[in-house]
Amino acid sequence: MNQNAPPVRFAGGLDVRAIAGVYAAVGRVHVRPIFTRETAESVYHSLTNEIQWQLQLNDGDKPISRDGASFEALSEADRARVMQAVYANAARGFQYIYNNFPISDLYEQGQQRSLYVMRLYEFLTSPEFLEFARAVTGVRSIAVVDAQATLYRPGHFLTRHDDLQHSKKRVAAYVLNFTPRWVADWGGVLQFIDGDGHVAEGYTPVFNALNLFRVPQPHNVSLVAPFAQGGRYSITGWLREA
Q1: Is the torsion defined by CA of 202, 152, 95, 88 positive or negative?
Q2: What is the pLDDT of residue 136?
Q3: What is the CATH number of the domain that holds 236?
Q4: Coarse DSSP helix, strand, coil percentages of the chain, rounded to the nearest 5 percent
C-alpha cells in the first residue's frame, strides 16, 4: 500500500440540498467535481496502473468473462470474429462488452486490498457517503453499496436496460468517471431513454463526476468510437437496501 496516497475526500462545497432537488425532480443528477482533485487523480492512476482487467460480455442470458490481456493477444481476425458475433447479438437484443474489475467482490474476499481503488470502495461504504446517498435520494433505508471498475475501449458498449432486479433491492445506480479527457464525439455516453425511444438526456464521461440515477430507468452506454483517444474509465455500482 502506498503510504503517501491521499485520503479519499469529497470535493469542498457540495450543495447536497440542491443536488437532492434535481434528483427529486427528474430521477437523476450529474455532480462535478465529486472528489478532491488529489483523490480523483489517485483513482485514475490506480485504474490505469494497478488493475488486471477482465473482458465481460454476454451471449443472450449467459455472461462470459475472459482475461482481458488474453483477448488482446488474439489475432486481429479472431478478435474481429468475436466482435462480429457481439454486434450481431446487439442488433437483436440486450448485449454488452467492456472490461471489468470486480472491486467489491474482491474486497469482500480479502483480495487486492492494497489498491487505491479499494480506498475509494471503503469510502463508498462509509457512514459519510451513505448519509450523502440517503440525503440525495431521499431513501433512508440505503445500507449497501457495491462497486466495479469498468474500462470501455473502442468498440465497447452497453445496450438499453433498466437495472431492475428485485432480489438485489437496488434503489439507485451510480457512475463515477475518471477519464481525464473525453468528448461526446468519442461515444461512451450514458444515455437515458424516454418512453418514445428518444434520448432524453446524456452524460458525457467527464473527469471526476458522479452520475446518480433512480432504478428502474432505461439507459445505455453508447458505442465507443474507433477514433476515441484512449479508454473510458469509471467505477460503477448500485445503492441498495439491506
Answers
A1: positive
A2: 98
A3: 2.60.120.620
A4: 30, 30, 40
